[in-house]
Structures are given as C-alpha cells and as structure tokens.
Amino acid sequence: MRFVLRILKALALLLVLVVIAAAGWLFIRPPELLRVGDGYAAKIVCSNVFIAGRAAEDVLHDDVQAPGNPLLRLVRVSVDRDNDRVTARFMGLFAQSYALYRGAFGCTSVPDGNFEAAANAAPFDPPAKMQANDGLWPEGEAIDNPADGKIAALLADAGVAGPAMRAIVVVRNGRIVAEAYGPGFSAKTPLIGWSMTKTVNAAVLGRLMLGGKISFDDDNLLAQWKNDTRARIKVSDLLGMESGLAFNEDYGDVADVTRMLYLDPDMVSLPANAPMEAAPGQRFRYSSGTAVLLSRIWMDRVGNAQAAFSYPHDALFSPLGMTSAVFELDARGTFAGSSYLYATAHDWARFGQFLLQDGVWNGQRLLPEGFVGAMRTPTAASNGRYTQGQAWLAPGGSSAAFGLPEDTFWLTGHDGQSMAIVPSANLIVVRLGLTPSRLDYQPQVLLKAILAALPQPRGPQQQAGSQRQTQPQP
Q1: Interatomic CA distance for residues 129 and 109, integer angstroms
Q2: H or E, element range at 408
Q3: 8 Å CB contact between 446 and 421
Q4: Cα(first)–Cα(last) distance of the chain, in Å?
Q5: Does residue 157 surpass a pLDDT of 60?
C-alpha cells in the first residue's frame, strides 16, 4: 500500500511540475497562435468599445468568442479607460496583447507593447470631427418616405437577411427605401467593413490620381524595391491583386495576414518584404498585404505627413458627409487599408452611392473618369472574379449564376460584410453583420429578392440615363 502511495505522490509531483513548466513556457514564449488570438481580441474589443460604444464583455462574447476558434473562449480582456487601452490574455494570464485608442484614428493593435511609439505615430492634429445634420439622406440622416413595404418584409425575413445581421440599408434612386437593424444596433452604430475597406482605400488613392500625384502605370513604388524585380510592379498590379508578391491570406491559422494584423506593429513590413512568386499581372493572389502597400504608397505621394493623415477625411469622407467614418492606423502610422474602417450603415451606403454616381458628388467629380469603371472591369488573372479597382464581380459565384444583372459589382468583407451596387437598377444594398463563411450565407440571395420586389426595369435608354445621374432623386 505504501508503495502505491509513493507512486501516486510521484505522479502528482510530476503532474505539478509539468503544469508549472507548461505555464512557464506559455508565459515566456507563448505560441504565435495564442498571440494572434489575444491580438485579435484586444483590437476588436478596443474598436467596438471606444468607437461604437459597446460593452466590452458583449464584444468579447459575441464578436470574438462566438464565431471563431474554441481557444478564443479562454481569452479574457480588461479595459483601461484612463489610458485608452485594452489588454487581452489567454486564460487571463498568458500571451498578453494590447490595443490602444487614438481618438479620431480609432484603435491599433500594439503587439510589441510599445505604447509610446504607437501614440507618437498618430498626429497631434487629427481632422476635425464632422457633425451629422437633419437633412434628407444622403445630405443628412433623415429618411423622408415610409419604408417600401415589400422590401421591409424581406429584410425582416431571417432567411433572406442572413444570420447575425446587424444592419441592412437599401438605396433606390438615391434615397433610402428600407433599412433594418439587429438587436443592439441602430443607424447610429459604426460597424466594421473588414475588406470593404480595400475599396474605400482605393478610392482615396483615386482622389490623388485626380490631382495627378499618382497613376495606374506608376512603378518603382517603394525605395526598398529599387534594383529589384519588384520595381516592375505597377499601381495597377496592386489594385488588381496581381502584383506577383507571395502572401498567405488563410485565416484558419497563423498566416501572413494574421501576422501582419496582430503580430507586427508595422503592417507594411511583411508585404513589402514578400518575395515574388510570379511576374506582375500573371497571377491573381487576394492579399490584404497588397491593400496596406497601397496605403503606404498613397500616403507617401501626398508629400506631407500631417496632410497624409488628414487626407481620407479631407478628400473623401468630408465631401461625402461620412461623419461617422473612422479609418484606423497601424501602430507605426500607416492606414490599415486592408481591413479597418468603421462607419454607420448610412455612411457605407453614401460611399456606395458615390460609386454608383461614377465618383461624382454634388456635381463635383472627385474620382478620375474611368476610375469607377476600373472597379467594374474584371482582371484576366482572376478569371473575371476580381476587378481592376479592389472590388468584386463574382464573390462566391457569377452574377449570371444567381440571375442578377450583369453590371452588378460588389464590396465584400470578412464575416458577411457586403455592398452590392447595381447601376442598371439604380440600387445599392449594404449588408453588415457577424456571419462567418462556415454558415454559407450568400448576399446574392438578399439582392435577388430585393430586385424581384422592385418595379420592372425601364427601357435601355432610360436605364442609361439613370446610370448617368449625379444627384439623388426622390
């Protein structure tokens, strides 16, 4: 019996030593997967608490833990409102990661814990905050007409709107005709666009094109690419996701995209140092790193650091009246053009209306002629799925396969964000939510149902006139 007790004590001691060793390992050298998870949790909680005004525990439970890796259920967060910081730790102890709120520039992941560098990377003179007015949308926030009953009924159908829908706005002939919001969300809630941000970032670059500071054909884009085969990469190659740069966009594990977003304070570093895997223009490679490179490139072309930080606001958001838009920077001061724009559904719809009007707003051309056309023109390397301007023609299937108008083009983002723009129907449908791809929801279902509920399209000549309109019509 004593022998058995000795064995049990030895096993218990061994178990304690194993637990202590494992805890020490997790504390000193946590696996990258845990660091990514904590970085993601800290960043998402920070943005939703400080920008959207949501409760930290709700964001942790609903946004971070519910749809993702089971390990995320063991993440704990704390919010330090005195210092505008969020800390996330696995099991409340390990692989700590941080996010910092920087006012008009939202939150940034601070994976190295260098808060001083992150704070100093944001300018001291942020753009002045715009105030929404009471005018009719899109000039203001008011909706003048009662909702279209047929469309409102569709938005109330969970099978059409999709699981975990947070906001849907339908714009017809330049006015909002129906909208719906999930529990806890409203027309005043800023929501993340994820990769819809890429198209907005492209439009910011397009504003610079209008002023002649950059062009589709520019090459030699980064100083570190000088005397390198990457010097041949053109702006058009980056916009079309066919730069030839290697980049792993797999969100299921620790990959280039998650390293860039949550492990590296300088998001530009990884894609700028990526090797070539193909000649420019020869291979389609969807890459969030490409969008961040575009941010760095257009910021450098502005020519003045302070002006670059204010440029999205001054050149795009302010003219369009996107009063809620918060375009976030990384910890070293580059706009996260791949992923991090928060805005209300009304403001996302304003951007859609801007594209529908071919880059013209209130009679003023803000994008070069042909720029929105590039957003609607497929690239050969993507087999017609992606366009020359950071937008989609066929996300998850062609328009024809769903019986949609051929001129439909899309902005799409992680977890079910989408914006459909249909010029021939003078229609925009914005749909935001928390709908992971594993749920197999396709926003084409929503768009098709809305199109079917609209009056029959007019003749070709009238449709062409509708596409040329530059002002909303009641």
Answers
A1: 23
A2: none
A3: no
A4: 90
A5: yes
Q: In Å, how far are 89, 251, 254, 415 from 68, measured between CA atoms? A: 16, 10, 14, 10
241-273 pLDDT, tens digit per residue, is: 999 999 999 877 799 999 999 999 999 999 999
Q: Are 197 and 339 contacting, i.e. CB atoms less than 8 angstroms apart?
A: yes
Whether 99 shows a pLDDT value over 80: the answer reads yes
Query: Using only C-alpha atoms, what is the Rg of the chain?
Result: 24
pLDDT digits (tens, 9 = 90+) for 387-425: 999 999 988 777 778 899 999 999 999 999 999 999 999
Query: Which burial class, exposed, middle or buried, applies to 252 when counting CB atoms under 10 A from its CB (0-12, 13-18, 19+)?
Result: exposed
Mean pLDDT of the chain: 90
Q: Give this prediction's pTM.
A: 0.91
* 418: three-class secondary structure by DSSP: strand
Contact 148, 155 (CB under 8 A): no
SS (H, E, C) 76-129: EEEEECCCCEEEEEECCCEEEEEEEECHHHCEEECCCCCHHHHHHHCCCCCCCC
| Cα–Cα nearest to 267, from 243, 305, 295, 248 | 295
> Exposed/middle/buried for 121, CB within 10 Å: 0-12, 13-18, 19+?
buried
User: 474 pLDDT exceeds 50?
Assistant: no
Angstrom distance (rounded) from CA 311 to CA 178: 32
Distance of CA 55 to the CA centre of its chain: 21
Helices 196-210 and 345-356 pack at an angle, to 10 degrees, of 50
Closest CA to 284 of 328, 245, 332, 258: 245
Dihedral (Cα; 127, 129, 135, 137), 10-degree rounding: 70
Tokens of 386: 């992606």
* Residue 5 binned pLDDT confidence (cut-offs 50, 70, 90): low
Report the range of poorest mean pLDDT among 275-284, 347-356, 393-402: 393-402
How far apart are the C-alpha atoms of 423 and 404, rounded to whole Å? 12
Question: What number is the average pLDDT over the span 107-130?
Answer: 91
CA distances from residue 175 to 137, 146, 180, 411, 413 in whole angstroms, order as listed: 7, 11, 15, 20, 24
Do 228 and 270 form a contact (C-beta atoms < 8 A)? no
Q: Which residues contact 67 (CB under 8 A, 6 or more apart)?
A: 415, 434, 436
